[in-house]
C-alpha cells in the first residue's frame, strides 16, 4: 500500500483508476475500505484516492492524546500537496467531512466540489460530549473495544432499514471494531476526542466559496437533518440531499443512491463550472 510521510509518520492511502481526482475520506472507527462501493463505480472515470486517518486502516499511530480537527485538516492538506494534486473533488463522511470543510475553507482553489456527508460543522452539544467523551476515555483505558461497547456503538451507526435487511453488514462492522489492535486504540480515541471537542465552525461556512453538497441519511441518529439544513442555509453555493433508508453511513448502507447523487454533482460541476450550484436548494 502506498504511503507518504507526514509529521514523521506513515500516512497510507489507496489509489484506483485515472482521470480527475476524487478524494474519499472516512470517519471514526472505519477505514478507507468503507468507500469501496464508490471506488468500484467511480474509478472507471475518475482517479479515486482513499486515505486512512491516523490510527485507522494502515496509517500510522501518533503520540497525541487528542488530535484536533484543525490538525487533521493540516495533515490531509500535507497529503494532498505530497501527491501534487492541484484540483479535486472531495467526499468526506463525518470526521472526513469536517476535515474537508476545513481544507476547502482555507484552500478553496484546490477543491472543485465538496461533499460533506453525515457531518456537522457546529460544536458538539454538551449533552453529546458528556455521552461520547467518557466512551473514548473508557476505550483508551481498556485498549480495546469491549463486546458491550461494540453492541452499544452499532445502533448509532446504522439505520433501522439496514438492521432489517442487511445484518451481514452490521456483523462485519462489529467484527472489524472488535479486531482493532490495542496499538491503534490510543490514536483512534485521540481522533475521536478531537472531533467531539471541536470548536464551532458554522460562521466560517458563510465564506465557503466551494460548491458544496451536504448529504445525510434520513435515519441518522448522530446527525439529524436539521443540522444539514442549517449548514446549507449558511453556505453560499450549497444544496443538500437526504438518503432514504440510511443511517450514519449512507455510502455503505445505500451505495447506489449515494453514487447517483455524487455522479450528478460531479458531472454538473465539470460540465458547467459552478453556475448551477449557486442556490441553496433541497
Helix/strand order:
EEEHEHEHEHHHHHEHEHH
- Count of helix runs: 11
The residue-averaged pLDDT reads 95
Order of strands, widest sheet:
1-2-4-3-5-6-7-8
Percent of residues in helices comes to: 40-55%
**Percentage of β-strand residues:** 15-25%
Number-wise, the strands total 8
Radius of gyration: 17 Å
Class per helix and strand makeup: alpha/beta
Largest sheet: 8 strands, mixed
Q: Within the CATH hierarchy, at the fold level, what is the topology?
A: Rossmann fold
CATH architecture: 3-Layer(aba) Sandwich
- What spatial form do the alpha-carbon principal axes imply? globular
- What is the count of distinct domains? 1
Task: Enumerate the spans where pLDDT stays under 50 for 5 or more consecutive residues.
Answer: 274-282
Give an overview in words:
The protein has one domain: Rossmann fold. 44% of the residues lie in helices and 17% in strands. It contains 11 helices and 8 strands. The chain has helices spanning 36-42, 69-82, 95-106, 126-142, 147-157, 160-165, 167-178, 185-196, 225-234, 250-253, 255-272; strands spanning 3-6, 9-16, 20-25, 46-51, 88-93, 111-117, 212-217, 238-243. An 8-stranded mixed sheet has the order 1-2-4-3-5-6-7-8, with helices on both faces. Mean pLDDT is 95; it is low at 274-282.
List the helices and strands and how they pair.
Blueprint: E1 3-6, E2 9-16, E3 20-25, H1 36-42, E4 46-51, H2 69-82, E5 88-93, H3 95-106, E6 111-117, H4 126-142, H5 147-157, H6 160-165, H7 167-178, H8 185-196, E7 212-217, H9 225-234, E8 238-243, H10 250-253, H11 255-272
Parallel strand pairs: 3-4, 3-5, 5-6, 6-7, 7-8
Antiparallel strand pairs: 1-2, 2-4
